[in-house]
Design goal:
With 113 residues, this protein is an all-alpha fold. The chain contains four helices and no strands.
Length: 113
Amino acid sequence: MENQLPAIPDVITQIPLTNYVLLASILFVIGIFGVFTRKNAIIILMSIELMLNAVNLLMVAFSAYRSDPNGQVFVFFIMAVAAAEVAVGLAIIVMIYRNVRSIDINLLDKLRG
């Protein structure tokens, strides 16, 4: 007996895979633009989250088109890592704000020992 993969749901096939790739690419580029051009640490964290979500979107789209749930499971790991990254990042930002009264990343050179 052959191991047949389940059929792709109609809702997913109505949108071409290239549209998902295009949307994820746009989100990823916006995230990169935010990381390299902004000086606010919170906006940089948000841009990193945007890049991670772009990757998540691609993983879900490809796994749905292949009817393989491995990509969707891996998205949960990425979301857990992203949540931990935000928690640690916000804690660091709060401590920086308490010390220098700003979250501008250009002022972080004052933290040298």
